[in-house]
Design goal:
Number of strands: 4
Order of helices and strands: EHEEHEH
Shape: elongated
Radius of gyration: 17 Å
Helix content: 40-55%
Strand content: 25-35%
Distance between the termini: 40 Å
Structural class: alpha+beta
Largest sheet: 4 strands, antiparallel
Oligomer: single chain
Number of helices: 3
């Protein structure tokens, strides 16, 4: 499973739906969608500021994450940004890979 942080920003119609359903109603809808794709909802928080919701999910792979992002953004009621999350061990593996790279102007 791959872990992702989803940052959601409601549009006007999305805000109307949120007011009608409440926060727990939207969380339940998101949980149902994630589980139907073979994933799990780890956390769901509302926030102040530029981002309305922070959601952490585990989904089978990046294709599933892209499908989820496209489907939600296509609704026109909310815009999400999906950020892949890496474990410390994955970063350790990346640190030990040797990449041959010549920077510009060198």
């Amino acid at each position: 499973m791959a872990k992702y942080l989803i940052k959601a920003k409601y549009k006007a119609e999305g805000d109307k739906g949120l007011i009608k359903e409440g926060g727990t109603g939207r969380r339940a809808a998101v949980k149902q969608a994630i589980e139907a794709m073979g994933g799990t909802l780890e956390s769901f928080y509302y926030a102040f500021g530029d981002v309305d919701c922070f959601v952490i999910v585990d989904v089978p792979n990046s294709v599933t994450a892209v499908a989820l992002t496209l489907t939600i953004n296509a609704s026109g009621t909310v815009h999400i940004e999906t950020v892949p999350l890496l474990t410390c061990e994955e970063v350790d593996q990346a640190c030990h890979q040797h990449i041959s790279y010549r920077p510009p102007h060198s």
